[in-house]
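Justification of resources, computational component.

The compute hours requested in this renewal are based largely on the per-chain cost of generating structure records like the one below. Each record pairs the submitted sequence with a full structure-token output. That output is archived, and it is also reused by downstream analysis tasks.
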Amino acid sequence: MQFKDYYQVLDVPRSATQDDIKRAYRRLARKYHPDVSKEPEAEARFKEVGEAYEVLKDPEKRAAYDQFGSDWKAGQDFRPPPDWDAGFEFHGTGPGSGFSDFFETLFGGAGPFSGARAAGASARRGFRGSGEDHHAKILISVEDAYRGGPRQVQLQTPEVDSTGSVVLKRRQLKVNIPAGILAGQQIRLAGQGGAGVGGGQRGDLYLEVEFEPHPQYRVEGRDIHTSLKITPWEAALGGRVQAATPGGQVTLTVPAGAQSGQKLRLKGRGMPGHPAGDQFVELRIVTPPARDERSRKFYRQMAEQFAWDPRGSAPA
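The structure output for this chain reads:
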């Protein structure tokens, strides 16, 4: 997928105000409108201008797009980093249609800005009305999801200031994380969304949870997967070893004759729930290095003792 420089498309600097962007769009839309333009490839240029304007006219989309910075050049291969949209508070304005893959990846179909406004919120009319519901994605650790409890989160809300420029307003919120919450689930904060009209009640804020990358744990449903290094003698003879879980260290029994890649189950040690998930521990046999003559001699003795070819023959 190729990166699109929407500022270049509209021929405006990144510091352009919202009014500057509107004027640039109107000028270019008139120039390339397929019904009147005699410019080559007018229809394609008209569509490209419309796509750029769809993003830059919206403070939320523009603020999210701007975080990719000016280092990317139009036409370069591009993949958005994981969870690039985390921490942005938005109300969801709905995607455009028929735009490029680049647009659809960031703002269409399954993107964070594709959700319709909360049911009924935008349809309410009159002097007194409830505010819109807002949405945001937050990243939490697997341990926080396992234990639950209060946590501070920071959100960024794009706004247009008095000069017509898009700025990010930050706010801190205290959130109670339910124990056992899974990636993709939402936390509702009542009254933390958009302001009401004419004294109406505020909308709600929905926080979608995603997990931060973890060096040990991988979560699938309510099950947690991890790996554990063991020595050759622990694998051959069996024994009891300590294994990490999000709830703390536990004692794990390694069966005699265990093999690298073998998985052991810790029942009920996955994400809390009804029922709780399990934790699966994949064993990885780690061989001590032969750094001196004594250890090398020991390995030679092992080779003579076992006379075993793991690639074909059975042990003697």
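Helices lie at 6-10, 18-32, 42-56, 59-66, 101-107, 142-147, 232-237, 293-306. Residues 14 and 225 are 44 Å apart (CA to CA).
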